[in-house]
Amino acid sequence: MANRILIVDDAAFMRMMIRDILSKNGFEVVGEAQDGSQAIEKFKELRPDLITMDITMPEMDGIAALKEIKKVDANAKVIMCSAMGQQAMVIDAIQAGAKDFIVKPFQADRVIEAINKTLGI
User: Fold this and answer.
1) Distance CA 29, CA 48 (A)
2) How confident is the model at residue 1 (pLDDT cuts 50, 70, 90)?
3) Matching SMART domains, A to Z (predicted)?
4) β-bridge partners, 80
5) Considering only CA atoms, which of 74, 71, 68, 66 is closest in space to residue 101?
6) Quick check: 82 and 57 in contact, CB under 8 A?
7) C-alpha dist (Å) from residue 54 to 1, 29, 86
8) Angle at CA 46, nearest 5°, toward 65 and 56?
9) What is the reported pTM?
């Protein structure tokens, strides 16, 4: 059975890029969200195996959403996505419970490597 992934990013173009990388590598994208509060709702509804989460988003950022998702399920697997130069945010994300992070612009092999490592594949 394919691993089920939720993609969270405020940019439709980024969600499309990640979805493309994941589908080509045999993962199932079960949903998408464009901000942190949507991510929490979708997580509760879909219970994905893994979430890719942008850090900088309107409404609620990725780190706040990560903390809320961890309250719902302490074992939730979340990989944060950030642009270059956001090292401090990445450290915050890891401390909040993120399993890994990938840097934009995405390199397909790095995305798959982070997901496989996080899922233990």
Assistant:
1) 9
2) low
3) REC
4) 53, 101
5) 66
6) no
7) 26, 16, 12
8) 25
9) 0.94
- For the chain, give the secondary structure using H, E and C: CCCEEEEECCCHHHHHHHHHHHHHCCCEEEEEECCHHHHHHHHHHHCCCEEEEECCCCCCCHHHHHHHHHHHCCCCCEEEEEECCCHHHHHHHHHCCCCEEEEECCCHHHHHHHHHHHHCC
Determine the pLDDT at residue 76: 98
The encoded tokens of residue 54 equal 């942008």
Q: Tell me the two tokens of residue 117.
A: 């490592």
Q: Render pLDDT for 24-81 as a digit per residue (tens, 0 to 9).
A: 999 999 999 999 999 999 999 999 999 999 999 999 999 999 999 999 999 999 999 9
Taking phi over 0 as left and psi of -120 to 50 as alpha, with beta for the rest, 47 belongs to left
Whether 31 and 48 have beta carbons less than 8 Å apart is answered as: yes
